[in-house]
């Protein structure tokens, strides 16, 4: 029999529309149980190497783009030798594996010891779910985030289109505000990485900055990784239009059941204005104030 706390830390699949399977709260964050198990395996068995590159993000904040940019930077680098699969005909999710899925998930499909260096991994796990050594072993950590309103709108579209769930945007928005979304609460996720941003080997990026100044930010990533690279080539290769067109030519679906072209929807800043009211925006700002004001974080 569950204790009241355990009951509070569970959402049944029927209770909330975008809970695709049971979710449990672990260290304050909502995940499917298998991700909690995977995070424990990561903490126990993943030893970051100084050359490892870990790309972290909350879902729908620019993960796919960051994966593509990092792969492309390494590919065009004249200073780092990289012999991994590249983007030519691949979706970035095939090139950069998720720590909690392909490497340490219950149906892991890749052996971490067989991946050649520099190894690039990706995760949606909060920083507190990763081994402490990710910020002390010399490995590099890049976090990307995005304004909560656009993050929510992107997430809402993915779930609506992927699962065909019928729910009003208002109900979905209330869940987002309460943190009842995959990897949520969004605000706490971002804060954990923001608090680590001053460490030597942590780079904190925003989707909005990347959109506004792609060359400058690609250079920042390349410098952080210690790569000399052809910035213009990288920006072009990873542009929304280029990636969306390439993904359309790809057949089949990603392991998550997502069709490849569903990773590319609009790719703009400010789409929230087409879906949310000013009052909803104000609600997000109030939560940000409450959770972030002391940290100086403001997106
Ligand atoms: P929208 O739904 O607002 O269009 P993630 O990769 O974390 O799942 O984030 C997905 C969001 O990033 C989607 O936002 C998607 O369109 C956008 N995106 C994907 N690739 C991009 C790119 N190359 N440039 C800009 N935005 C991109």
UniProtKB/TrEMBL annotation:
Q: Which InterPro entries match?
A: P-loop_NTPase, Sulfotransferase_dom
Broadest EC class assigned to this enzyme: transferase
Keyword Ligase in annotation: no
Q: Per its record, what are the GO molecular function terms?
A: sulfotransferase activity
By its UniProt entry, which SUPFAM superfamilies does this protein fall under?
A: P-loop containing nucleoside triphosphate hydrolases
Please give the Gene3D superfamilies that the UniProt record associates with this protein: P-loop containing nucleotide triphosphate hydrolases
| Protein origin, superkingdom | Eukaryota
* Occurrences of domain Sulfotransferase (ranges): 50-292
EC number annotated for this UniProt entry = 2.8.2.-
**Record's keyword terms, sorted:** Transferase
Spell out the Pfam families in the cross-references. Sulfotransfer_1
Similarity-based family: Belongs to the sulfotransferase 1 family.
Q: What is this protein called?
A: Sulfotransferase
Give the source species: Brassica campestris
> Lineage, please?
Eukaryota, Viridiplantae, Streptophyta, Embryophyta, Tracheophyta
């Amino acid at each position: 029999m569950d204790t009241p706390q355990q009951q509070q830390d569970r959402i049944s699949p029927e209770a909330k529309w975008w809970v695709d399977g049971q979710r449990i709260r672990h260290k304050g964050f909502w995940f499917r149980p298998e991700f909690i198990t995977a995070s424990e395996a990561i903490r126990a068995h993943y030893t970051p190497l100084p050359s490892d590159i870990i790309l972290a993000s909350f879902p729908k904040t620019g993960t796919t783009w960051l994966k593509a940019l990092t792969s492309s930077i390494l590919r065009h680098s004249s200073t780092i030798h990289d012999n991994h699969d590249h983007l030519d005909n691949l979706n970035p999710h095939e090139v950069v594996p998720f720590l909690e899925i392909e490497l340490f998930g219950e149906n892991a499909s890749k052996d971490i010891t067989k991946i050649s260096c520099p190894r690039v991994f990706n995760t949606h796990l909060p920083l507190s779910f990763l081994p402490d050594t990710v910020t002390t072993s010399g490995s590099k950590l890049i976090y990307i985030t995005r304004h909560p309103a656009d993050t929510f709108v992107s997430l809402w579209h993915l779930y609506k289109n992927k699962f065909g769930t019928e729910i009003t945007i208002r109900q979905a928005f209330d869940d987002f505000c309460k943190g009842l979304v995959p990897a949520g609460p969004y605000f706490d996720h971002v804060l954990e990485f923001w608090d680590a941003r001053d460490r030597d080997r942590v780079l904190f990026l925003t989707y909005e900055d990347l959109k506004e100044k792609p060359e400058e930010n690609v250079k920042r990533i390349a410098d952080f990784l210690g790569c000399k690279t052809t910035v213009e080539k990288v920006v072009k290769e990873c542009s929304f239009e280029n990636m969306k067109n390439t993904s359309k030519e790809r057949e089949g679906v990603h392991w998550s059941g997502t069709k490849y072209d569903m990773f590319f929807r609009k790719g703009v800043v400010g789409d929230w204005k087409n879906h949310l009211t000013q009052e909803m925006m104000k609600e997000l700002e109030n939560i940000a104030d409450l959770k972030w004001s002391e940290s100086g974080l403001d997106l």
